[in-house]
Model the fold of this input.
Amino acid sequence: FKMTDYCSKCGEKLKEDALFCANCGEKVPNKQNRFSNKHILIILIIFVILAIFLSATFLLNQTQTVKVDNVEFEIPADYVSEPLRTDVNYDGNVKSSAMGWSNKDNYIEIGVTRTPGKGINSQKVAEDLGGTPTKMYGYTGYYLEYENEGYAFVFGIKDEVCMVYVSNYDVFDDIKVVGAV
Ligand SMILES: [Zn+2]
Done:
């Protein structure tokens, strides 16, 4: 890339690659370098903005799929499994599984109960547990509030009774019920 330049001070035609004007001694700005440095800076700024935007979007939408017995759920990625709240009971008729996860602010516990083979009237069990009839996650179920402790939604998927317990009401929104698999 070559181009003829003229001195910005005296207007003299400059020699190719001249650092100073041969006529007046004015320093010739290195335009090509300035141009590319500016370009690199703009590209870097765009890249940084894009990286911040993408990582923020990525972090905000990041989820993990968890499975409690036969049922899959999606919960935020920052929740870590609580070993103490992982429990499976099977007495030959009823299989009951419960798992817990926590992040720095909140706690999630999901329990799934079923009668393997025989089937269970999950809607009836949910109804028997009581609470306020509510529709959540596309399922008709029952909403329960535990005084100063948390909130739960109990519902049935096929022959599974599911109970989603959260320490903060807003956490309900972060959970997605994938379904029985
Ligand atoms: Zn000059």
